[in-house]
UniProtKB/TrEMBL annotation:
Domain of life: Eukaryota
Places the protein is found: Secreted
Protein's name according to its UniProt entry: pyranose dehydrogenase (acceptor)
Organism from which the protein derives: Crepidotus variabilis
Presence of the UniProt keyword Signal in the record: yes
Ligand binding (FAD): V262
GO terms for cellular component: extracellular region
The protein's assembly and partners: Monomer.
Signal in keyword set: yes
GO MF terms, alphabetically ordered: flavin adenine dinucleotide binding; pyranose dehydrogenase (acceptor) activity
UniProt keywords, alphabetically: FAD, Flavoprotein, Secreted, Signal
Broad class of the protein's primary localization: secreted
One Pfam family here: GMC_oxred_N
Amino acid sequence: MRWALISSSLILLSSTTRAAVFRKFEELPTVSFDYIIVGAGNAGNVLANRLSENPAVSVLVVEAGPSDEDVLPAIAPFLALGLANTIYDWNYTTVPQNGVDNRAIPYNRGRLLGGSSTANIHMHQYGSADDYDKLAAITGDSEWAWKRMKKYVHKHERFIKPAEVADGTAKGYIEEDRGTDGMVPISLSTYRKPFDDLVLSVTRELPEDFPFNPDTSGGDNTLGLGWVRQSIANGTRQSSSTTYLRSAASRPNLFVLIETQVLKLLPTGNSGGKPAFRGVLLSSTNPSPNYVLAKREVILSAGSIGTPQLLLLSGIGPKEDLEQLNIPTLVNSPSVGHNFSDHIFVPYWYEVKGLDTLDDTFRQPDLMQAAIGEWMASRTGLIANGYSSQIGFFRFPSNTSIFDSTPDPSSGPKAAHWEMMFCNFWLARPLPVPDSGTYITLMTSLTSPVSRGFVKLASINPLDEPIIDPRYLTADYDKKAMREALRVLKRFASSKTFSEYIVGAVGSSGSEEDEPVDEHIRKNLGTTFHGVGTGAISPDNAAWGVVDSRLRVKGADGLRIVDASIWPFVPSAHTQGPTYLIAERAADIIIDEYQPISLHSILRFARNVWNSASFNFWGSSTSDIHVEL
Ligand SMILES: Cc1cc2nc3c(=O)[nH]c(=O)nc-3n(C[C@H](O)[C@H](O)[C@H](O)COP(=O)(O)OP(=O)(O)OC[C@H]3O[C@@H](n4cnc5c(N)ncnc54)[C@H](O)[C@@H]3O)c2cc1C
Ligand SMILES: *[C@@H]1O[C@H](CO)[C@@H](O)[C@H](O)[C@H]1NC(C)=O
Ligand SMILES: *[C@@H]1O[C@H](CO)[C@@H](O)[C@H](O)[C@H]1NC(C)=O
Ligand SMILES: *[C@@H]1O[C@H](CO)[C@@H](O)[C@H](O)[C@H]1NC(C)=O
Ligand SMILES: *[C@@H]1O[C@H](CO)[C@@H](O)[C@H](O)[C@H]1NC(C)=O
């Protein structure tokens, strides 16, 4: 798509003023707060909201980027990719990737209020129940298991039922699983096109390969192809900023400092033999250094790149790496920045005939302007929705030969190995849109990958981009799995439904041989920007891992991580939903820790007793229920 066209039409939208947003450190009324949250992103704003619910507690959120207010591509869903490489992006690029012909791959991250929840492309799921159960198994903390985490779905989402329901079986949501009064409105596409019906009709034609999924939110029901859920309402983006942050903005105990980068964590003495980090150094135009202090704790929500970068800059990380840069090691934490785990994706383009695609809309400025005009007038149409209206989550059969050499890497039988997405146009990344012709783009993504990479410092300058090396396709399994996924995708493309329209595959992906297919994969592989793992959770006494099961940085005091980086493996879904759920539980953990005797803890005690009773009823053990007063 021609994003330049779109960014030239940045038109101011009506403003909603938010209170308590400061642009300069000097404007803050105090330098000391109960909690300091680093990063007003996907996770950070959840904490900002939940922690400031208690009016007796003061909360400061520090965000490097500017406000998201009036930023058209942050609001109009279809224009989202227009944020890339603007002042709202960190503009990261991976180091050249050996596995993909030494290409360096753009690694965008939102750098504005809402973080990547403001820059993402709106797809919203939670991941499989197995992902959460694996988290519980890894940490030994059963509170991370799905049966305990799914209550946060209801705190988090406010599902908007689609207005028109074509037929009962295809409505796209399971009523009783949906949240109705949570924080973030979630909807299904409101822009129906013939292509949607074709995609869904494949679920009826080839139900073995592409079963219909009545609700793609995840949990116990992850697999199959169905309507994708989008963090969109009334045709506008719903980010952590427009929801969690905005609804708390008028609280006098919540302070948001934007356009200010945290450069470093400050050591603030020792407690219990551990160095404490209850202060942060801030970037500033003022010549004297500026810092703020936390009475309770500092919470890192700077994301999977920003969080390890800040830890390393502050002397928390692998000793050898820190020594190389002459950074004194305050906490030797060998896993910081390691085990980076991400979802790779590859687009496959098919030329089509007789199908009304969007290619001409993107080629003709007046058509695009008309679409933007419709959105401006009524927040409807093409621009009011995301890029793919459906999503499919699939498993490889257990007898596939790829499991001969690598044990099944998925977190369990409910979790997907791979995923499909669908666009009725030539998705332009990384190849430019051809000047003529009509196309569809079918995409595969690996949801349970094996390759692991890392994030390291390039220098001690906090303003330098860190080294990002995801090591895409370095695991043999990932190469074979991408090939295998394409084999299944080809069954989709050659379905009776689609073979009526498809003229042929573009490029070498149509080949039956491995090498041309591998070449297409290497040339076109990208990321869905779901990196996690660099601040991984692990068992409390394990030598590996960065945080304990309550998300406290191991070896440090007064410091916690709450963002996507804590996932020790990438969940089998797009990562905003899993990040929201983690953050919701983290808020409960933090609130509980600081309320030793209160009505809240008494209620919690009563709730635990109730829960253990119901556990017994279902025949489960109660030994894993922790009751704390
Ligand atoms: C282009 C794109 C498309 C995506 N599409 C989807 C999708 O469709 N569905 C989905 O589920 N997920 C998607 N994702 C992934 C998802 O958005 C992220 O996994 C998730 O938002 C990460 O949340 P987080 O809280 O860990 O980090 P972020 O939301 O990135 O928050 C980190 C915040 O910290 C700030 N920060 C960083 N360093 C500092 C510092 N030193 N000082 C002050 N502030 C700092 C950042 O500016 C940012 O605001 C996409 C991501 C991108 C980039
Ligand atoms: C990203 O690139 C854009 C365009 O070059 C630039 O304006 C912006 O300042 C960059 N972002 C950062 C964080 O440097
Ligand atoms: C959407 O619009 C309706 C009707 O104007 C309004 O009641 C609702 O609050 C809006 N929702 C969001 C999330 O803006
Ligand atoms: C990476 O994660 C695995 C567990 O999945 C762990 O055993 C290993 O020690 C981790 N490596 C590092 C460097 O943290
Ligand atoms: C795997 O099992 C299915 C169903 O039992 C069978 O049809 C298929 O041929 C098997 N594939 C391989 C590679 O053995």
